Amino acid sequence: MKPLVMGAGLVGCTLAIALKRRGEDVILFEKRSDMRKDSADAGRSINLIVTAKGLNAFKNLNLINEVLSITTPVYGRMMHSREGELTYQPYGKEEECNYSISRGELNKLLLNEAEKAGVEIRFEHELEKVDEKNKTVLFKNGASEQYQVIYGCDGAGSPTRKELIRLDDRAEDYIQELDADYIEMDMPAKNGEYAIDKKSLHIWPRTTHMLMALPNQGGSFTMTLYMHRHDKGNAPSFETIKTKEDITTLFEKDFKDAIPDMPNFATEYVKNPQGFLGTLRCNKWYYKDQIVLLGDAAHAVVPFFGQGMNCGVEDITYLLESLDNFDNLEESFEDYDQRQRPNGHAIADMAIENYVEMSEKVGDERFLLKKQIAHKIETTWPDLYRSRYGMVVYTLIPYSLCQKAGLIQNEILDELSNGIESVEQLDLDKAKQLLDNRFTPFIKEHALDLSRFAI
Ligand SMILES: Cc1cc2nc3c(=O)[nH]c(=O)nc-3n(C[C@H](O)[C@H](O)[C@H](O)COP(=O)(O)OP(=O)(O)OC[C@H]3O[C@@H](n4cnc5c(N)ncnc54)[C@H](O)[C@@H]3O)c2cc1C
């Protein structure tokens, strides 16, 4: 009877490496064939942003240099107006950046590292059922394997989670669909160079829909178009934009400055798969001492905070601490569930809020003023203040506390932006007073470290 990890995605591979290094004789099962031998799914070139909590998990496993070597640093958001005007917002303080990485390349790297660590990987094994009585996992290909523990890392549609819910009367899950889907397109390199600024995440926000660009190594950008799934009157949607002509008309109206750099957008739009977006919450992440969920299997979130994978590999950091702190597996799993589940729910909420922020508010003057005030406060008192965004992506502060701190910050920014038109009119004395009275006590109460996570 061995520990079995279900799913050789980003989280499953990373967990298998961690368990193997702890001396566990773990087997990693993956329903698909080996992606290192097959070509990646066409039209699925998802780019991820790796930030502090994810980097910390890789650092703990001494994999940080390998991971960073396949990333491209991104320092801020570049907004493109309909007229092609550009507005740049730095993410954080100077030199603070996020790292753009190809999900497929990272997955391949982690599969290689898992093999190097001595993990046995069995591809084309799709979990079908958990037979608790015989402590056996049954696979769709007819194979079976006895288990000591099952680590469910099999993604948002997790069959392991479904089995957990079947076995545990108290467990249930809930999927909240977003009203938007996404499709990926390409902005190829131009004579080996990036066609637009390579140090930015580019956004074309248009209230009901938006286009985003993240740089890849080698000069290209992965472009993602987010748009309503169903017809919503005047707003474009996947239901109404069907043909090459439809998408060309939309681009000419809304994303004109991107057209010269995206020679194949119309063909890609009609050819590439439409991706579903939703939030998955599960109210219990473990069953006895037998099953525990990590990554998207426990908490799939919409991608607008760039934290799904970061939170997923952070689950591993929390789980390993819990395994260290208790001799009994069930107690370890319960401790992990109690400490990390609130964080999974918090990042799910914040990701949905960010969707509204990125699509609707980035063109809103009041919102931009509040952002400028936050930036001013952050640069004036770097030891006292960090934006919620900065706490989420640059520190190891738990997501649930970032969320609470964000509520306090929002009240402060509302008060400071009231009655002024520009950041130059900001009353710095009042800002300091509000920080001292409302924000600093929260930071002290929870002993939060605002400093940047050191790679
Ligand atoms: C458009 C988009 C952009 C994103 N951007 C970011 C970002 O910027 N930053 C970030 O941190 N996250 C981002 N994410 C989220 C991130 O991709 C996921 O959170 C992450 O891939 C989850 O990893 P996972 O290993 O938990 O699940 P998956 O990557 O889904 O892996 C699950 C694995 O389990 C396998 N599997 C499934 N069923 C079975 C079965 N029955 N038996 C065996 N194996 C099975 C699957 O084949 C797969 O290999 C984004 C997601 C999307 C869609």
Q: Could you give the topology of this structure?
A:
Layout: E1 2-6, H1 10-21, E2 27-29, E3 47-50, H2 52-60, H3 64-68, E4 71-74, E5 76-80, E6 86-90, E7 98-102, H4 103-116, E8 120-122, E9 127-131, E10 136-139, E11 144-152, H5 159-167, E12 173-187, E13 200-205, E14 210-215, E15 221-228, H6 244-254, H7 265-271, E16 274-282, E17 286-287, E18 291-293, H8 296-299, H9 308-325, H10 329-361, H11 365-380, H12 388-394, H13 399-417, H14 428-445
Parallel strand pairs: 1-2, 1-11, 2-8, 5-13, 11-18
Antiparallel strand pairs: 3-7, 4-7, 5-6, 9-10, 10-11, 12-15, 12-16, 13-14, 14-15, 17-18
Helix pairs in contact: 1-4, 1-9, 2-9, 6-7, 9-10, 10-13, 11-13, 12-13, 13-14
Report on this structure.
This protein is α/β, with parallel strands linked by helices and 455 residues long. It has three domains: 2-69 and 103-176 and 277-357, FAD/NAD(P)-binding domain; 177-276; 364-445, no CATH class. It is 40% helix and 22% strand. It has helices at 10-21, 52-60, 64-68, 103-116, 159-167, 244-254, 265-271, 296-299, 308-325, 329-361, 365-380, 388-394, 399-417, 428-445, and strands spanning 2-6, 27-29, 47-50, 71-74, 76-80, 86-90, 98-102, 120-122, 127-131, 136-139, 144-152, 173-187, 200-205, 210-215, 221-228, 274-282, 286-287, 291-293. Strands 1, 2, 8, 9, 10, 11, 17 and 18 form an eight-stranded mixed sheet that branches. A seven-stranded mixed sheet has the order 6-5-13-14-15-12-16. The chain is globular and about 70 Å long. Bound molecules: flavin-adenine dinucleotide.
